Structure formats: structure tokens, C-alpha cells
Amino acid sequence: MRKPCCDKEGTNKGAWSKQEDQKLIDYIRIHGEGCWRSLPKAAGLDRCGKSCRLRWINYLRPDIKRGNFGQDEEDLIIKLHALLGNRWSLIAGRLPGRTDNEVKNYWNSHIRRKLISMGIDPNNHRLNQIPPIPFSQPKCVSPAATSSHESMNNNESSKPLIKPFANTTTADRVSDTTSGFEDEISGSLDLNLDLTIAVPSASSLTLVQEKLQINSKSIVTKEVTISEQAPTLVLFR
DNA sequence: AAATCGGCCAACCGCCACCAC
DNA sequence: AGTGGTGGCGGTTGGCCGATT
């Protein structure tokens, strides 16, 4: 049987009080982010270490940028999600001052719905094939159908525009079928992503080219070729 | 004015990777 | 090589609040 991450007996749960916040801030200000497990006791908090870490990272850290996401941030999230899937921490890492939790929430509450209303399956960033409901979204050349987000299962012929890592279960989180490519992403500290999608020309092929500059050293180029009459989608500038 | 609904978001839960021993 | 502890991550939940009926 799995041991709980910490002794939950006698620890507070739920919303943090101002006093608790202040204790955590004061402690980290003095001692820095050390061992989360021992931090609560040392800081005089009746909280699980994980809870402290989460509170600090998602809310109390001084460099957190709060408030609405800008259009550029939204665009970037969409780009990165197409490339990385639900790797919220990686995506958040490219958005200064944003946390993975914030990005995840924003995706689920805003972007996801927006893409769906544009007829784009948020799981694989493909257009659905039902006629569009007009939506004023300048990033999309050809707005398309509205369909439920379950559409990821509804069309076998619909190959992903970009092989996403989204829609993965916890179990296959580690075993995505994208060779070592993804590992290079995760392992990189200074990852410079430059994603371009070439709009199909006369041919019915869509070329997706991803360039990854890792630590300013190696460049990995990955090309994905998608065929057939997949509707043209330009999500990215 | 009250009840209901739906969206947002902070926080929790469980799993996994990594590291030290 | 195996094991246990810890941190980190993504999915999910639940409470709050504004909008709608």
C-alpha cells in the first residue's frame, strides 16, 4: 500500500489564510525553497509540504504574473500545446510569470472552448468536418465545424495535423510514440521553440516542421507529413 | 427575491521520475 | 540492482461568484 505523501492527520486543508501565506512567504524569504517536506514544520504551518509547494509556486511567488492572458500569450499556448500536448509545465515555462496550473486552467476554460467553437479539435488541433459556426478568430483561416470535444475519437480517417501528446493517460505519459524527440524537449533547460506550419500548396500535403534549438547547441528538425484532404488550418502566425 | 446554472480557479490527489543510499 | 523518499506533474474536484431564469 502506498504511503501518503505526508502525514495528513492534523494538517489543514482547503483555502489558505493570510496568516498562513505570510508564514510561508516569511520562511521562504529567509531560508529559500528547501525541503518541502520539512518546511511546514519549520515554518510553523499545519500543512502538507506539497500543499506549501503548490501554494508558493502557483500563488505566492513574487514573479507571478496575474491577470488576463494576452493575445500573444494565448497564441503561444496554442502553439506549444500543438507541439507538446498537455505538458503544462513545459508550456508554462515558455510563458514568463505564468504557472502550469494557470495555463492549464486557462486552456480548459478559455482556449479549449474557443477552439471547439471554431471547429477545431483541441486535442489534436485538427479541424472537424462539420460546417463551421462563424467565429471571429483572426488566427484561423478556415473556421470550421463545431463538434463535441469527443470528436477525437469520431473519425478514424482524420489524422492529426501534429502528432500531439495530448489525450494521454497517466500511464502513457512516459511512453508517447514520438521517439526520443520529446525527451529532448523535456530534458532541455534552455529550450527555444520555433514552430512553423507550412500551409499546403497545390498538393494536398501539409508539412509540419518543428525546429528545436536546444541549449543553443543542437538543432532537431522534425517533419510530419499529413496527407489527404484535411482542411487547411493555420493556427500559427 | 430566490433558485438554478455555469464558469473560473485554487487546491487536492495520485502517479511517476529521479536521486541517494 | 533494488528500495525508499521526495519533488514534480497532470487530472480532477469543489467552492465561490456572477448570470440567468
In brief:
Helix content is 32%, strand content 13%. It has 237 residues and is α+β, with helices and mostly antiparallel strands.
Strand content: 5-15%
Q: In the residues, how many domains can be counted?
A: 2
Count of discrete alpha- or pi-helical segments spanning 4 or more residues: 7
The biggest beta sheet is recorded as:
3 strands, antiparallel
InterPro entries: Homeodomain-like_sf, Myb_dom, Myb_TF_plants, SANT/Myb
Domain HTH myb-type: 8-60, 61-115
Biased composition (Low complexity): 147-158
Domain Myb-like: 8-60, 61-111
Give a verbal description of the structure.
The chain has 237 residues and is an alpha+beta fold. It folds into two domains: 1-62, Homeodomain-like (Arc Repressor Mutant, subunit A, Orthogonal Bundle); 71-186, Homeodomain-like (Arc Repressor Mutant, subunit A, Orthogonal Bundle). Helices cover 32% and strands 13% of the residues. It contains seven helices and five strands, in the order ααααααββαβββ. It has helices spanning 18-31, 39-43, 49-60, 71-84, 88-93, 100-117, 181-187, and strands at residues 120-121, 126-127, 191-198, 206-214, 218-226. The strands form two sheets. Strands 3-4-5 form a three-stranded antiparallel β-sheet, with helices on one face. The chain has a two-stranded antiparallel ribbon with strand order 1-2. The longest helix has 18 residues, at 100-117. The protein is elongated, with a radius of gyration of 21 Å. The termini are far apart. The model is unreliable at 131-237 (pLDDT under 50). It binds a DNA duplex (21 and 21 nucleotides) through residues 2-3, 5, 13-16, 35-37, 48-51, 53-55, 57-59, 86-89, 100-102, 104-106, 108-110, 113, 168, 170-171, 173-174.
